[in-house]
Amino acid sequence: MNRVEKRREELLGKEFETNNCGKCFIIDYKGRHEVTVVFYEPFYILICSLNKLKIGSVRNPLYPSAYGIGFSGVGNYNSHKDERLYDLWRGILRRAYSSEFHKKSPTYKDVTVCEEWWNFQNFAKWCEAQIGYSTVESNGLYYQLDKDILVKGNKVYSPETCCFVPSEVNNLIIFSNSARGEYPVGVTFHKRLKKYAANISLGGVQKHLGYFEEVSEAFNSYKIAKERYIKFVAEKYFGKIGENVYQKLINYSIDTMLMCEVIDEEQT
Questions:
Q1: What is the reported pLDDT for 181?
Q2: Helix orientation angle between 257-267 and 215-236, rounded to the nearest 10 degrees
Q3: ω before 42 within 30° of 0 (cis)?
Q4: CA gyration radius, the chain
Q5: Between 159 and 184, where is the model more confident?
Q6: pTM > 0.70
């Protein structure tokens, strides 16, 4: 029996604890740089060096190391070579599954990531195939990943609901109940005039639309102006955003529930 065979006999079945991926055990040994191990959970077989086993640095690519649910997967993408993709992936998992993040942004408590995207390889491959992923704006920043434009009220990050858009488009459709207070979006009450004011932000610049006797009139003024502005921005980025995104913006309508919710609250 030569030295390698003797060492193989000594090591077969030996269990090792890794730093971050649980336990594994040796099922084959062909030399100190070619050791085959099996991970218990999730089940996975890989070849590594004996030294990496001893220091616990062997990683199971199927182990949910990102917020207890995401895993790096098996493929060409990795956190070092594909840093931007990895940061985007970690970002959506953080928004969906980080309790610390939810303390600061409670509106994300019901948000989830589709099972397909728990695997970083699937997410990265999808991103690179999307219009806008590699586009850089005039401010030097990449287009942003958005989950709200294609599906109203969406709570799931998935290939069917997400897209890449410039920041101007991403900021077009943000309606926060907590931010707008007791009146519908775009509406405030002028105490001295005892009328409702309609205002809209156009590219970060506030524009006054007028004063109205009724909340519904003020909201309707805002709704018309906002929908026109969304169409204007859609035309501005025609050919620079996905056709599905363009069509959604062109046909976008402000939900009247943004007014009705407030009226109902006042009546109860």
A1: 66
A2: 160
A3: yes
A4: 26
A5: 159
A6: yes
**Could you give the 3-state DSSP secondary structure of residue 144?**
strand
Question: Could you tell me the two tokens for 127?
Answer: 């991103």
- Which band of pLDDT confidence, cut at 50, 70 and 90, is reported for residue 182? confident
DSSP-assigned states of every residue in 204-240 = TEEEEEEEESSHHHHHHHHHHHHHHHHHHHHHHTTTT
What is d(CA 147, CA 268) in angstroms, rounded to the nearest whole number?
33
3-state DSSP assignment of residue 20: coil
Q: Edge-to-edge strand order for the sheet containing 187-190?
A: 187-190, 195-202, 205-212
Instruction: Measure the N-to-C terminal CA separation of the chain; round to a whole number of Å.
Output: 86
- Residues 32-83 have pLDDT tens digits of 999 999 999 999 999 999 999 999 999 999 999 999 999 999 999 999 999 9
**For the chain, what is the largest distance between any 2 Cα atoms, rounded to a whole number of angstroms?**
99
Give me the helices (H) in the chain, please: 3-11, 50-55, 83-97, 99-104, 120-128, 167-170, 177-180, 215-236, 243-250, 257-267
Q: Is the pLDDT of residue 152 over 80?
A: yes
